[in-house]
Amino acid sequence: IGVIGTASRWLVPSLVQEMRATSPGVTLHITEAPSERLLADVISHDLSVAVITEPVLDQRVESTTLCNEELVGIAPKDFGLSSRTKSFKDIAKYPHVLTPVTNPLRTWIDDAAKQQGISLDVPINCEGIRLIPRLVRSGVGCSILPLTALPEDMYNLTKFSISDLPYRHLALISAKDAVLSMAERVVSDVIVRLSK
After folding, report:
1. Which of 18, 22, 50, 128 is the most buried (most CB within 10 A)?
2. What distance lies between CA 15 and its chain's CA centroid?
3. Above 90 in pLDDT, residue 177?
């Protein structure tokens, strides 16, 4: 299975525990990667199923919506921002560290900002979802991330909600032309159940 980094933190430990308890004979092969790579791997049959972000527009895959992910802003303490809710206009004054423009998270953020007539200044595009909070902590800019992607240690970081930024949606995908084995169907069912 494939899973995006933000979901792997909460999904994979529960999935492994559940599968070990209910299906100990099933061997799991887990790949953590960005949505666009996981989509390509499912289409090429390198992966049977994957948890990625919506929208899933490729007609070669079947998609099941799993759950919503809350997106929040983070800033270095040195920027002096409070933890109160901010608008895109409030945060547009600051540079941002975001995922690359090809990443669905970035598309989601850019589209929400654009609906408010805002274009964020993004001098740093970073593929590593775990690296982004470290860059923010170092003072290079703000970011917008799924709440589940924030580090446990929020030292030198301020977290805030962003008005008019909808939750993003996670989906389980498989190739339409794939025939999933019984084990792969069990894993898919467990993922759907754990995501509710």
Report:
1. 50
2. 17
3. yes
